[in-house]
């Protein structure tokens, strides 16, 4: 009779424990050094083991980029209010146009705090594209040029990167995507390495 009672008590205790699933590791970013909106070199070493979010835009974008940037500014404001420490890293997909002065102007327009929101460009376009494709695992097309249109197809997702420069998730800018991102940010901050 005692062994049976022990088994029942043991099973009840195991049922009440919550199951927490870790976010998958999708890829590990290689080391990189780009130039930020202040004209300074910037790479993972400048994040000092911090969690960061990345997105991909271009300043002369005629469609989705202005919305992404507006929502990024709002997200950073909200996370600061909730005490979530995160850096947003915005990469241009149009380095021929988005030089340091152009990115500086865009950051100023958005009132971006340079300690929390960094805009990056690079003079070596192939190095950027390789980082996007092989590191972040996001697609970026060559520019599409028509008579009155310039466009570059690129990822519209936010990429979550942990303290070890590992990609852990992709999120849309819609409400469910941003809610999930906040939950996953809290989870990532609790991980021990």
What would you note in describing this structure?
This protein has one domain: Glutaredoxin. Strand 7 (144-146) and strand 8 form a beta hairpin. The strands form two sheets. It has an eight-stranded mixed β-sheet, with helices on both faces. A two-stranded antiparallel sheet has the order 7-8. The chain has 193 residues and is an alpha+beta fold. The protein is built from five helices and ten strands, in the order H-E-E-E-E-H-E-H-E-H-E-E-E-E-H.
Number of helical segments with 4 or more residues: 5
Q: Compute the number of strand runs.
A: 10
Rg measurement, Å: 20 Å
CATH architectural name = 3-Layer(aba) Sandwich
Oligomer: single chain
Could you say how many structural domains there are in total? 1
Task: List key phrases describing it.
single chain, 10 strands, disordered N terminus, alpha+beta, two-stranded antiparallel ribbon, 193 residues, Glutaredoxin
Summary of the model, kept short:
This protein has one domain: Glutaredoxin, CATH 3.40.30. The protein is built from 5 helices and 10 strands; from the N terminus they run αββββαβαβαββββα.
Describe how the helices and strands are arranged:
Blueprint (H helix, E strand, L loop, with lengths): L1 H15 L10 E2 L5 E3 L4 E2 L9 E6 L7 H17 L5 E6 L7 H10 L7 E5 L3 H12 L7 E3 L2 E3 L6 E4 L4 E6 L3 H16 L3
Parallel strand pairs: 4-5, 5-6
Antiparallel strand pairs: 1-10, 2-3, 2-6, 4-9, 7-8, 9-10
């Amino acid at each position: 009779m005692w062994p049976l009672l022990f088994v029942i008590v043991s099973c009840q205790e195991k049922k009440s424990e919550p199951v927490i699933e870790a976010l998958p590791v999708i890829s590990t970013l290689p080391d990189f050094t780009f130039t930020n909106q202040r004209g300074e070199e910037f790479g993972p070493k400048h994040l000092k083991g911090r969690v960061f979010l990345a997105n991909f835009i271009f300043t002369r974008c005629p469609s989705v980029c202005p919305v992404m940037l507006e929502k990024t500014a709002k997200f950073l404001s909200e996370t600061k209010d909730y005490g979530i420490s995160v850096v947003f890293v915005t990469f241009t997909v149009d380095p021929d146009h988005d030089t340091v002065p152009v990115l500086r102007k865009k950051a100023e327009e958005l009132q971006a705090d340079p300690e929390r929101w960094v805009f990056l460009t690079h003079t070596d376009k192939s190095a950027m594209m390789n980082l996007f494709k092989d590191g972040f695992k996001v697609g970026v097309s060559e520019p599409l040029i028509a008579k009155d249109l310039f466009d570059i197809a690129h990822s519209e997702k936010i990429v979550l990167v942990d303290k070890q420069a590992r990609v852990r998730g992709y999120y849309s800018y819609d409400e469910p995507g941003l809610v999930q991102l906040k939950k996953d940010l809290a989870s990532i901050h609790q991980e021990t390495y």
